[in-house]
Amino acid sequence: MLSRIAESLFWIGRYVERADDTARLLDVHVQILLEDPWAEEDLACRSLLSVMDRPAEPSHVEVGREYVLDMLAYDRFAPSSIAGSLVSARENARRARETISTELWEALNATWNQLPSHMRPARPHDYFTWVRERAAVVAGITDSATSRDDTWNFMVLGRSIERADMTARLLTTRALAGSAGPSWTTLLRSCGAHEAFLRMYRGAASDERAAGFLLTDQLFPRSIVFALNQAESCLAALEPTADRAAVDDARRHIGYVRTNLEYRPLIEVLDTLPKEMERVQRACSAASDAIRGRYFPSGSATNWVGEAL
Amino acid sequence: MADLFDDYPAGAAWDEMIGADGGSRAAYKGLHTALAELSAGELRGRAETLARSYLAQGVTFDFAGEERPFPLDVVPRVVAGDEWEHVAPGVAQRVRALEAFLADVYGPQRAITDGVIPRSTVVSSTNFLRAARGITPPNGVRVHVSGIDLIRDSLDGWRVLEDNVRVPSGVSYVLSNRRAMAQTFPELFAALRIRPVADYPRRLLAALTAAAPHGVDEPTVVVLTPGVFNSAYYEHSLLARMMGVELVEGRDLFCASGRVWMRTTQGRRRVDVIYRRVDDDYLDPVVFRNDSFLGSPGLMTCARNGTVTIANAVGNGVADDKLVYTYVPDLIRYYLSEEPILRNVDTWRLEEPDALEEVLDRLDELVVKPVDGSGGKGLVVGPRASQHELAALRVRLREDPRGWIAQPVVQLSTIPTLIGDALRPRHTDLRPFAVNDGESVFVLPGGLTRVALPEGELVVNSSQGGGSKDTWVLGGAVPRRAVRLGSDLPQSVAQDEAVPIDSNPNDVRAQVMQQQQTRSFPVTSSSESGGGGAAC
Question: How far apart are CA B245 and CA B239, in angstroms?
Answer without folding.
Answer: 8
